[in-house]
């Protein structure tokens, strides 16, 4: 997933660390062409200023540090995880309490697993550059494949007037809205921070109608209004990274935050990452109160 894109860390503005990612993006990112649908619906100069969102750590669980996490789903207490890397990709059902793998389904060795979502009674798993989505039932039995154009990174679902749809990210500023049974693209939404495109959108999760998007190579998660594409807020989960403890001799170099799953039943967000040895349960809230002037 190598792109000639901006490095968030190099762009951080020292004056205001909490708003650095978004300030840097609005100054440094170039505008991209918009479709007529986007021009009508996604350009919103009156969009509110994105705010940092509150979160609180509730619980810590064991996570397999051999899993290159690419997608996470929890449904009625059952957790499913998509893992990547060629020759090691697949989908697992995992016991949340202790991290044990309960059942697995491997992908072909030439397929790199990516995002995962549940729609209806099926799981859908993306592949990175293989242009193929894999469908499973909830016992992880394969139920077929469908092609789609371009790369696949993150995947989630969204309720629309036409029914539930899949939302796909590919590292660009665009979220693609796909029909759930054909994967035909129905429209695109350009994700933007105060009118400027936000690239590197990776793992996705629908939380009560908002789309959370992990920003690749970052511990920050953007909160997106899927109707307009406007980023309305973000979560900074760097403090979770500081809690990671790998069992020796493991200490991988690629450890991006890359697993988000909303537990609707308990109103908690599950957060983990590539090769992370822990998985965290957090409670999420509204905007962080602004600091008092010094």
From TrEMBL:
It comes from the Bacteria. The lineage of its organism: Bacteria, Pseudomonadati, Pseudomonadota, Gammaproteobacteria, Nevskiales. Pfam families: Glu_cyclase_2. This is Glutamine cyclotransferase. The keyword Nucleotidyltransferase does not apply. Keywords: Signal, Transferase. Residues 1-42 form the signal peptide. GO terms for molecular function: glutaminyl-peptide cyclotransferase activity. InterPro entries: QCT (IPR007788), Quino_amine_DH_bsu (IPR011044). It comes from Panacagrimonas perspica.
């Amino acid at each position: 997933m190598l792109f000639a894109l901006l490095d968030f860390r190099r762009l951080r503005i020292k004056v205001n660390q909490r708003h650095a990612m978004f300030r840097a993006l609005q100054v440094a990112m170039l505008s991209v062409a918009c479709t007529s649908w986007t021009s009508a619906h996604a350009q919103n100069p009156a969009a509110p200023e994105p705010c940092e969102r509150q979160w609180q750590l509730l619980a810590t669980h064991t996570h397999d540090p051999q899993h290159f996490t690419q997608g996470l789903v929890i449904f009625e207490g059952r957790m499913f995880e998509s893992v990547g890397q060629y020759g090691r990709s697949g989908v697992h059902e995992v016991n949340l309490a202790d991290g044990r793998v309960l059942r697995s389904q491997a992908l072909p060795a030439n397929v790199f697993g990516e995002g995962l979502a549940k729609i209806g009674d099926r799981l859908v798993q993306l592949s990175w550059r293989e242009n193929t989505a894999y469908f499973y039932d909830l016992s992880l039995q394969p139920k077929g494949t469908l092609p789609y154009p371009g790369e696949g990174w993150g995947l989630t679902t969204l309720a629309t007037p036409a029914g539930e749809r899949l939302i796909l990210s590919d590292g660009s500023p665009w979220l693609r809205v796909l029909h759930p049974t054909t994967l035909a693209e129905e429209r695109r939404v350009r994700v933007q921070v105060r009118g400027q495109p936000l690239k590197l959108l990776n793992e996705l999760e629908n939380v009560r109608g908002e789309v959370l998007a992990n920003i690749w190579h970052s511990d920050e998660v953007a909160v997106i209004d899927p109707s307009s594409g406007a980023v309305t807020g973000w979560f900074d989960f760097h403090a979770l990274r500081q809690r990671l403890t790998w069992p020796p001799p493991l200490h991988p170099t690629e450890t991006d935050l890359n697993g988000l799953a909303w537990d609707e039943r308990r109103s908690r967000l599950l957060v983990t990452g590539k090769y992370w040895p822990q998985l965290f349960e957090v409670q999420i809230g509204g905007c962080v109160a602004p600091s008092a002037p010094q």
